[in-house]
Amino acid sequence: MPATALASDDSPEDERHSTASPESINQVHVEVQDGVPMYQITRLGEPVVEPSPLGFLLEDAPDLDGPFAITEVETSTFDETWEQVWGEKQFIRNHYNEMRIHLTEQEDPERDLVVTFRVYDDGVGFRYEFPEQEGLEEFRIADELTEFRLTGDHASWYIDAYQWNRFEYYFENTPLSEADTVHTPLTMRTEDDLYISMHEAALVDFSTMTLERTGENTLKSNLMPWSEGDRVRVTDTRVSPWRTFQLADTPGDLITSYLILNLNEPNKLEDTSWIKPAKYNGIWWEMHLDKSTWNRGERLGATTENAKRYIDFAAEHGLDHVLVEGWNEGWDEAWYESGVVFSFTESIPEFDLEEVAQYALDNDVRLMGHHETSASVLHYEDQMHDAFALYEDLGVRAVKTGYVGHGTEIVRYDEDGNEHNEWHHGQFMVNHHLDVIELAAEHQIALNVHEGVKSTGLRRTYPNMMTSEVAKGREYDAWGDAGGNPPDHTATLPFTRNLAGPFDFTPGMVDLHFDEYRPDNRIKSTLAKELALYITIFSPLHMVADLPENYEEQPEAFQFIKDVPTDWYDTKVLNASIGNYITMVRKERGGDDWYLGSITDENGRVLSAPLHFLDADTRYVAEIYRDGTDAHWDHTPYDMVTEERLVDHTTELTLRLAASGGQVIRFRPATDEDIERLE
To answer: Tell me, which fold does domain 594-678 have in CATH?
Structure first.
């Protein structure tokens, strides 16, 4: 139903105002103390965030830090169910109670500031609004004063902020008191087993928020700065992103919370028929293995002949796109140091762009474009209109972008022509990425962004923003210093990085040792675990990442990879422990099949999987791919058993997972022949 106004009143400064979620699970309380607006969050009457201040320091105007009085309070409720164009759940309920707090300065210049709280049963979001008024037409934020005074030294999972390699680090797991300044999502567990994820939603025309620990249990908003030191430049956009708290009794409930999406604006694209969840392969992994190279020479990967080989493989096995990296001019130069060498419209002589794109279309496949910028953003912006237009003409429907570069290698020029180095996650780059999203949509192209800005739910507003990296991905298995990602990395991602949005992790490896190319590295998983990553790490564009010839040697594993969808009707978590294990089930969109994926860290597990999610009136065939009796990631990773059995909604399966192992199951409705064969 539509939003319904509940109340509006004028309020004295010392009055406390509260609103609760629809089922009165979470509550927000706001009051002014000594001129400072303070908010508090409670859950079932117990504090989650103690009274914490709000406000801003400004560069070129008096600070917005009080003394304030509450001059008006508006409350309303909202309840609707909306449909995702694609996603981990097709229909999402957006049900909240809202409280808009109008604050007015009690001293000159008597400006207004509005703080809006939306309170859901699964969490809270709040944001600032800056009404346009005299003395606040355009301004610069020097600091955001928002604090988050937590109730204890919670167990925390995070990545440190302000590092040279952006988000590409393994997650720390420490008490909160050992954190410094961290990226979001920040995941926490209290002593009472309440699970908290702090993040932000609808990051538009603002700077990315990091969280700085300023006291033992106190965090403060720390906005990524411009090179001149100011944090945000407020002109047309008069609202901040939402500061979010997802609150859950189990870690799995964090995963099935859609608060971040709900706090974003509805879809702005009138025609979304061209946006298709898909699987893709491509000329990528062979270069990370050093079997071939991005630059030209005897081992060049991006040749017309090699691209056609990948296209033939994709066509034979029903894959939708073929990614080709290294196709364009510039890779022979010192591109890692300066992306100004790249052309985004001119292919190298060994690669005929038009011929390859047409060959793909002739085989019912599409070329996936690639734009590596090496963080030379202005150089890219000079060409990207022509580049996207070219791709549209060639029938390309998805582009992988890249921004490889150190944390502050983004260059811009001010009005006086002075050069500035900007952070990857400051307001300058936030605006750049939105420009790319909108431009891509004009040309009916979906995006897969690497080294970009963290996801904050904009995929709801712009569903062509399909997936991204912004984390430590699969390539570190090929050449990372640790000899490959540790076993607990993929068991941590669903509760941390994936809470922000889809992750192009590039799963599906079936050759777990590659001594011929990278003898010091390997994939620290069993074969069955690799299959399970298609379920436990969500992405609507999932890569079939291994070399084509390797899949031919693992036909049973490859069959599951071909079968598994990338778009879902529903998602549930059966059991979960952050960094240790997870079992998820997803139902395919537009069909009757369910898929189960379960993985563990370096420790073997025996987990229970009750199948109560299955339709009560249907019997199913469970197509099982599981770790064999002797499976172990270190010495016998390929030991995998495939089998079938009949199940129904009363069945409870026992999942035996090897060390860094996994299991996947496809549940499909049984035919009469199946029942006769398997009973």
So the answer is: Immunoglobulin-like (2.60.40)
SS3 440: helix
Tell me which residue of 292, 274, 361, 354 sits closest to 322, measured CA to CA: 361
The Cα–Cα gap between 275 and 271 comes to 9
Over the chain (679 residues), what is each successive 10-residue block's mean pLDDT? 54 79 98 97 98 97 96 98 98 98 96 98 98 93 98 98 96 98 98 98 98 97 98 96 98 98 98 98 98 97 98 98 98 88 97 98 98 96 98 98 92 93 97 98 98 98 98 97 96 98 97 96 98 98 98 97 98 98 98 98 98 98 98 98 98 98 98 97
The burial of 372, by beta-carbon neighbours within 10 Å (0-12 exposed, 13-18 middle, 19 or more buried), is given as buried
Span(s) in the chain for CATH 2.70.98.10:
4-262
What CATH code is assigned to 266-466?
A: 3.20.20.70
> Measured between alpha carbons, how far is residue 481 from residues 288, 484, 517 in Å?
14, 7, 15
According to DSSP, the residues that pair with 641 across neighbouring strands are 626
Q: Which of 105, 475, 588, 623 is catalytic?
A: 475
Cα gap 491→604, rounded to integer Å: 13
Residues 541, 398: contact at Cβ < 8 Å? yes
Within a 13 Å sphere around the CA of 291, how many CA atoms are in the beta-carbon half?
14
What is the pLDDT at residue 522? 97
Q: Report d(CA 434, CA 8) in Å as an integer.
A: 35
Pairwise CA distance, residues 103 & 321, whole Å: 52
Contact indicator for 576, 553 with CB cutoff of 8 Å: no
Phi, then psi, of 559 in degrees rounded to 5: -60, -45
Measured CA to CA in angstroms, residue 626 lies from 307, 386, 637, 661, 667 at distances of 34, 48, 11, 9, 14
Q: Please give the model's pTM, rounded to 2 decimal places.
A: 0.96
User: What b/e readout covers 10-37, taking b as 16+ CB neighbours within 10 angstroms?
Assistant: ebebeeebebbbbeebbbbbbbbeeebb
Cα end-to-end span (Å), the chain: 48
Q: Can you name the residues that pair with 160 across neighbouring β-strands?
A: 182
Alpha-carbon distance 646 to 648, whole Å?
Answer: 7
How many of the other CB atoms lie within 10 Å of CB of 571?
Answer: 18
Q: Which of 120, 460, 497 is nearest to 264 (CA)?
A: 460
The tokens describing 350, both together, are: 């060994």
Task: State how far the Cα of 115 lies from the Cα of 397, in Å rounded to an integer.
Answer: 40
What pLDDT, on a 0 to 100 scale, did the predictor assign at position 135?
86
Which part of the chain has CATH 2.60.40.1180? Answer: 594-678
Report the alpha-carbon distance of residue 405 to residue 372 in Å, rounded.
Answer: 11
Known catalytic residue at 438: no
Q: Which CATH architecture has domain 4-262?
A: Distorted Sandwich (2.70)
Q: Which two tokens stand for residue 565?
A: 């969808």
Helix (H) or strand (E) holding 676: helix 672-678
Q: Angle CA(296)–CA(301)–CA(307) in degrees, nearest 5?
A: 125
**For 637, left (φ over 0), alpha (ψ -120 to 50), or beta?**
alpha
Q: What is the pLDDT of residue 3?
A: 56
Residues 6+ apart with CB under 8 A from 154: 175, 176, 188, 189, 190, 191, 196, 217
Strand partners, 172: 158
CATH 3.20.20.70 domain extents, the chain: 266-466
Q: What is the spatial distance between Cα 128 and Cα 107, in angstroms, rounded to a whole number?
A: 20
Beta-bridged to residue 591, according to DSSP, are none
Per the CB < 8 A criterion, the answer to whether 390 and 347 are in contact is no
DSSP H helices, 289-426, are 304-317, 353-362, 377-393
Residue 276: CB atoms within 10 Å: 19
